[in-house]
Design a protein that fits this description.
Length: about 750
């Protein structure tokens, strides 16, 4: 038997060595990984967690903004995000394409519903460019979006686009900041929009107004869900799932009243349409608390679309200073009364007033010869204020302006508040400040200062935030309360100022007749300020018209400031007309809405009056007396041709009702009449009645019951309650009083 000879197989040996070495290296690697738990300097457990651990964000809801009654002003609402699938790989059936087949047609249709830039003619081109763009490597993306233009799409618009049945156009549910009232305190509320973050997520951020100022409180904090999956992203059984809940944004409750704000917006829009002014501002406030109930300006914008024309992106009520014009005379008058230097019945020469080499003039350039200070105020005389400054004293006057809060911020809870500037370096500046030229203020400063006049001397800081509340717990995070800013003048001074302000509406020469309300008695001051040029000086025939007023006079419930800049007035109209077309409907409707049914809102007995025009004065006189009112017939009786106050409305029992008739006028007994009632009688009777002093009537130069047959002056002397206890000392003569004043 032949023996087989052993042959050494080098190939097999080398294969054994090679695979044996690989096995040894692999075994060594496994042992090393088991021992150290690291690979290439990285923790394997961490890498596994990164691959299989997932995290999903829970978006926090942005807080809502409410008015003071709990009605929504701003909230998040369901909307849609537009997506276009542009890659052919999305289509498996050519008969049913799932990508954009015709970019040009798609762009043309979409341009009718979304706007990628301001120039309409560029919309189609911009959308087409987005639909056909390529990635950096030259490949088509799977899908594209359209930035802010493709977000926040309403259900209505989404439905219209869907009806076009465009291949590749999809919609994803989204949230949009929604402002249900449209143009509504837009510069106060501001707006918020979704912005893309670096990680390609989107966050709603405030860009203006309260949305910006309180963005942190409104935004809240996003939560998250953490969990583990397998390689195919399926949730692993028994894996731990951790949830960090979202902290929703806080809700903000404003002092704004939606109903009053709506009254204001409607009136402003109507006047803007009718007079096409350069700009307008208006504020309504509660003088008892300082709460701002309404605030707006024109031009304005819709916060949903951010569309506006010739508009400033700032809140002019807070951030822009103005020369206030004659509304400032209110506080010059208050300073004079409070320093006991107000001489209502002393006379001065109107027309011109010289300050060194400068001459200031009254608004009619020539004045009205020698008139009383009371008439000068009613006529809105600049020279009357100049003479008053001498009586008050410059240092004392500026001290009162400081007490009223001019020249410094009010502290309202809004950003970027301006302080204004009180000019006092030169004598002419100190004089012009008395009637509102040169020195600057903000509308909100005028509102704050007017609270002192309306609130018996107590000045209240304005504010717009009532509460900030955590919606998940109901916990009050911030609770703003009324803040008293001091007492610039006494209660008695404030009451006298209100009486005199009311006379600017009722007096024969009053400049505020356009602001009379039939059902409520208004007190206020008109303003006509020349508009300064940037280069210095003033624009010819260009004015800012305004009114700062309150109602009802005896116990004001609302104060309101309105300004209209450069309106296109109709022939024969003065600047007060467009201003009054905002003030009157808003004040009237707001007082009725607040159930302010009388001239004094205190809980007292009321009596209703009607429109008595055409009825018998004698019969109405008996009816009113039986109802507890005091009828005063102005004339010889018969048919009533006019009355004050107008009806129908409710009055406090004991109030006067003036009934105008034809015929001779018999003088009533004025004893204990107020200045306002004397002025009403004077206006309706058209008699020369000279009023001396303040307070209530103590005596009259012509006996009650006398039939007035000529134009001889009738002197009615008033005293304050304090003066009634002091023996009267008569002045030597009117000439001496005038001489003292003119020094």
């Amino acid at each position: 038997m032949k023996k087989k000879r052993f042959r050494f197989q080098w190939g097999a040996f080398l294969l054994m060595i090679f695979y044996g070495g690989l096995f040894f290296l692999l075994f060594t690697r496994m042992v090393t990984l088991q021992a150290t738990g690291e690979a290439e300097g990285q923790e394997l457990a961490a890498r596994a967690a990164a691959k299989y651990s997932k995290e999903s964000a829970i978006t926090a809801n942005r807080g809502k903004i409410y008015d003071r009654t709990g009605q929504v002003i701003a909230e998040d609402t369901l909307s849609y995000r537009l997506i276009a699938v542009v890659n052919e790989k999305a289509t498996t059936d050519k008969k049913n394409p799932r990508h954009v087949v015709d970019p040009e047609k798609t762009a043309e249709i979409l341009s009718q519903y979304i706007h990628m830039n301001k120039e309409d003619e560029m919309n189609k081109e911009a959308i087409y460019k987005q639909l056909t763009r390529l990635k950096e490597n030259g490949e088509k993306p799977y899908q594209v979006e359209f930035g802010s233009a493709g977000r926040g799409i309403s259900h209505e618009v989404m439905s219209k686009i869907k009806d076009k049945k465009l291949p590749g156009i999809l919609f994803v549910n989204d949230l949009k900041r929604y402002y249900p009232n449209g143009i509504f305190a837009s510069h106060l509320i501001g707006f918020a929009v979704k912005e893309e973050n670096k990680d390609h997520t989107f966050t709603t951020k405030g860009k203006m107004g309260l949305e910006l100022t309180y963005n942190k409180e409104l935004s809240g904090k996003d939560g998250k869900i953490e969990y583990e999956t397998d390689a195919f992203s399926y949730l692993l059984p028994n894996s731990e799932k951790m949830v960090t809940p979202a902290k929703n944004g806080d809700d903000i409750y404003l002092t704004i009243d939606k109903t009053i704000q709506s009254f204001l917006e409607e009136a402003m829009s109507q006047v803007e349409k009718e007079y096409n002014p350069e700009s307008m501002t208006a504020v309504v406030a509660d003088p008892k608390t300082g709460k701002i109930l309404a605030m707006t300006q024109r031009p304005t914008f819709n916060p949903d679309t951010r569309e506006g024309t010739n508009m400033k992106w700032l809140n002019e009520v807070i951030e822009e200073t103005i020369e206030p014009g004659s509304t400032m005379k209110t506080f010059t008058l208050a300073s004079a009364i409070d320093t006991n230097t107000w001489p209502p019945n002393a006379t001065y020469m109107s027309g011109q007033y010289r300050v060194l080499d400068r001459v200031i003039k009254d608004h009619n350039n020539v004045g009205w010869n020698r008139i009383t200070y009371l008439e000068g105020f009613q006529r809105s005389s600049n020279t009357a204020m100049a003479h008053l400054l001498k009586l008050i004293g410059e240092d004392a006057f500026y001290d009162y302006l400081d007490k009223f809060g001019f020249g410094k911020k009010t502290g309202i809870d809004l950003p970027n508040e301006a302080a204004g500037t009180l000019l006092s370096k030169y004598p002419i500046q100190r004089v012009t400040t008395t009637y509102g030229q040169g020195s600057t203020v903000t509308p909100i400063q005028l509102i704050q200062a007017m609270t002192a006049i309306a609130n018996d001397g107590k000045m209240m800081q304005p504010y717009v935030i009532d509460q900030i509340v955590d919606p998940s717990t109901g916990k009050i995070i911030q609770n703003h309360k009324p803040i008293e800013k001091g007492q610039p003048v006494s209660a008695d001074t404030a009451k006298q100022v209100r009486e005199i302000l009311a006379s600017t509406l009722t007096a024969k020469y009053g400049t505020a007749k356009d602001f009379i309300l039939n059902e409520y008695e208004v007190a206020g001051k008109t303003g006509t300020a020349q508009i300064p040029k940037a280069s210095g000086g003033y624009l010819a025939n260009d004015y800012l018209y305004s009114f700062l007023g309150m109602a009802p006079v005896d116990n004001p419930q609302l104060i309101m400031y309105v300004s209209v800049k450069k309106p296109k007035l109709k022939i024969g109209e003065n600047g007060s007309v467009p201003v009054s077309k905002v003030f009157k409907p808003v004040m009237l409707n707001s007082l009725k809405y607040l159930n302010v049914n009388t001239e004094d809102v205190k809980q007292v007995d009321n009596a209703a009056i009607q429109d008595y025009t055409g009825q018998s004065a004698e019969a109405v006189q008996v009816e009113l007396a039986n109802d507890g009112l005091q009828p005063v017939v102005v004339g010889s009786g018969g048919k009533i041709i006019d009355q004050y106050p107008k009806g129908p409305q409710k009055l406090i029992k004991g109030n006067f009702v003036f009934l105008k008739t034809e015929g001779d006028i018999s003088l009533p007994d004025f004893t204990d009449w107020s200045l306002r009632n004397v002025l009403v009688f004077k206006s309706m009777a058209d008699l020369e009645i000279e009023v001396v002093g303040e307070g209530f009537v103590a005596s009259q130069s012509v006996s009650a019951g006398t039939v007035i047959s000529d134009s001889s002056p009738i002197v009615v002397k008033l005293k304050t309650p304090a003066e009634s206890y002091i023996k009267d000392v008569e002045a030597t003569s009117d000439d001496e009083v005038e001489q003292i004043v003119d020094q």
